[in-house]
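Quick one - inputs below.
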Amino acid sequence: MRLSVQAEPFDLGAEANAFAAGVTGAGAVVTFTGIVRDNAGTLSAMEIEHYPGMTERAIAAITEQAIARWSLADALVIHRYGRLAGGEPIMMVATAASHRADAFDAAEFLMDYLKSRAPFWKKEIGADGAEWVAAKDTDEAALTRW
Amino acid sequence: MIDVLYFAWVRERIGLPREKVQTDAPTVAALITELCAREERYAAAFADLASLRVALDQELSSFDAPLAGVREVAFFPPMTGG
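Output:
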């Protein structure tokens, strides 16, 4: 298991390759990457704040749960903080399991939990000012399916 | 003394990221009442508890949780990671 909370950009291809190369005995690797969205073309930047200490603990707890529940061979979570531009990767997860259903489910579980249980807060900075992104009711509802 | 931390718009409304607070408040809710009595900016930040979350020693908790033995309290809006 590799977990990283970092300001620096990451190389999706290199991370995915290194993850897959380090896994033994898995038949499936799933990766997901979150990208800074610029819906209206008005976003200047995305500012991501986090809670150092709690962030690492929360991600570790969520990832350990996923590994145990889907018998994962390995898992990777990278999440960035600080100032990001539209189109930049914010975060990625990778999961390795014997079969693809477990790898997909574990990746979805990680995403649902990281969204509303890892202490990150996004602020959209546009030409007309800045606004904190509000959590959606559907984010919380997504947890109930697990 | 406990460390009280604020994040995102809670931090912006109160105007600081963290502070040390001398308190005998038995619960999180009692601590919030004490903070709100200090100054208007605290009352503004804590006006709607439904839009706030609390963590005690870096674990999500609830407003009626006891503060005995707690070293770090953090207040923040619902998280928006991922």
